[in-house]
Every structure is written in structure tokens, then in C-alpha cells.
Amino acid sequence: MTNKNRGILLVLSGPSGVGKGTVCNALRKMGTELVYSVSATTRTPREGEVHGVNYFFKSREEFSSMIESDDLLEYAEYCGNYYGTPREFVEDTLASGQDIILEIEVQGALKVKNKFPEGVFIFLLPPSLDELQSRIVTRGTETEDVIKSRMSIARDELRLIEHYDYAIVNDQVEAACHRIQAILTAERCRKERMVTTIKQWIEEVQ
Amino acid sequence: MTNKNRGILLVLSGPSGVGKGTVCNALRKMGTELVYSVSATTRTPREGEVHGVNYFFKSREEFSSMIESDDLLEYAEYCGNYYGTPREFVEDTLASGQDIILEIEVQGALKVKNKFPEGVFIFLLPPSLDELQSRIVTRGTETEDVIKSRMSIARDELRLIEHYDYAIVNDQVEAACHRIQAILTAERCRKERMVTTIKQWIEEVQ
Hints:
Chains A, B: Its EC number is 2.7.4.8. Chain A is an alpha/beta fold.
């Protein structure tokens, strides 16, 4: 295979509280061969979150400056905080032939889809809506109003599943990770990645 | 999930000698959760092949009668023998919600695609054309003319890869099987399979 293929862009999205971060961390621990995109955010770090690993934690001023310089692939305000995806890192990774995963909220994912329609979009689902509410409550960092607001947003976001390629139920983190790894393996086997090689084989003989 | 989904139709195809049968047998030994379609053929059984497991071995008269009764999903003559796919078994399996794999030559696969465009079509590739020729020679059951004819057909068939969804290199049988299993897992996660469930969730709340 002489032609180096571009990397695959995996976008993992889903409602707040569904466990996107947990699944991404587990994928990393399992040694999945992926580059992990790091988002920028203005929200306060949760316990254990590390700057440059989980997020780039930015002040609102710093974030605004990134928006103005067009340094973000997408950005959105969510529950009073900004979240965004630094553009250059994603583009460089794909050009180098490495696969990259973005963990991102639903609106942001759709903006990325406009720019990278060839990306692979995975919607992470809770086992049920009740279970989603339990998870938001158990996290314990949110007030009752925030919980209600998140559940309402979650229902709206679920309607957007039609824009995605895959849907994975996060019933058990390890099982969800295995499904994502399978999707990655399958996408690496898409015939488009072999067509150039095959044409060379046929030409060499003639 | 109250709505029972239709099964997935996997079609594994590729040039003669690439190892379709070996890969299918290995998938079965690995306990892959799949129903294996059994083709009908008029060719002579090879050593170890069992009627009703590897093929339904038919006389030319029996095969012609199946064609006339429209009992075959597709059939083709290849190197002087008929091969075909009994229709009812495939349709019943899919309707029951089970996934089924067809191991089939390239022309037949394209005929199946006309009837089941929603099927998942996998093209099995040799590591190289030289390697394909070695495998046909090593099999030891073919004359030199047959080998030349098969290589010429193989090159023509390789051009048809564009009609497939996935391409898998059969460099090592176990690795090829793992890729097929990953494709099956990924296809089971296609968002189309979850859309009905999600609509029910949203309706229940409103």
C-alpha cells in the first residue's frame, strides 16, 4: 500500500450525563490506537481533571480570542460555559494518517459534520431516559434546575440521532468501548481505502 | 427495544483462491454469532467437504429444476459448474432477526446486491496478485490452463470492488475473521436500528 490514507475522524457525542468522558477515558486505558482531541472550555475543572489532558481550561477572554482568530473547529455555549475544538490539531492528525476521536456535545458534533462530512459520527445513548436522569443526579454537582434543564435538552438532542452514523448504548462502559473499537476497525476496512491499491495491481499486470 | 430488527445480510466475496471458504470455516469455529448460508453447487466435492454443511451437492438436473422453480436467489456458472444460493433460507433467517453470511463468488454477490441493496458486502483480497496465484497453484487441484483462466477472471473481478462496502486483506485467517466480526458489530450499531426506540422514548415523555 503505497498511498498513505488520511486518518479517520471519530466523533463521540450524546446528551450530557451519558458518560462520554468515562467512555473516552476507558478507550484510552484499553490502549485503543487513537489520538484524543483535547477540547478547550471555560468551565471549572471537575475533581481529577487535568489541563491539557481532559480539557484546555481557558478564561472567557482567552476563549473569545481563539474564536476571533478562527482557531476553533466549532464552539458552543452550554449551561453558561464555552466549549470548543482547536482546529489545527485535528487537521494535522488526520493529514498524518492517524485516527482521532473528538468527545463533544451534540450541537458541536453537527457543526463538525458540516466541515468533515466524511467523519464517523457516533451517538452515545443511555440505557433509558430514567437512567440518564439518575446519572445526572448521582454526579451530584448539579442543582435541580440544572437537572431539569439538562433532561429537556437531552430529549431535544435525541431527535438529532438521525444525523449520526452509529448509535451505541452505554449500558456497560467496557462493552461500549468494544463497540467503538469495532466501528473503528470496520471503518478502516471501508473499500474506499483499498481502491487505489487495487488499481495499481491491475495496471502493473497490463 | 420492543421492535425486533431484521437480521443483517453479510456477503463475503472475492476471487477464487482468496480463501473465502477457509475464512468462513474459521468464523464458525470462533463461535461468531451468525447463520451460515449453504450454497447449492454441481461441482464435485473436495476432500473433507460435507453435503449440507459446505454445499448442497446437486446434479445438473436437480440444479436446473431449482432454477425453473425460482428457488435460487442467484446462480452462476463458473469454470463449468453451477453455484447458487437457495432463497427461502436466507429470507427466513433475516425475517427472524438473525444475521446470516453468504460466501459467494463475485458475480453472484452483485446479483444478490440487486435484490438486497441493504446487505453488507465484503470483498476478500489476497495480500497481492502473486500471492493469489501461489494459493491457486498450491491448492493442487487445478491445471495450468485453469490457473491462467482464474487469474484473468480474478483481475476482472478486482475491478468490481467499487460495488462493495468493505475490503479485507486475507493476510492471516484469524486477523481477517476479527475484521469481519468488527464489521458485524459495527453494522449492528448503525443508528437506523435505534431510531424507532428513540422515538418511543421521546413520545412516552410528552
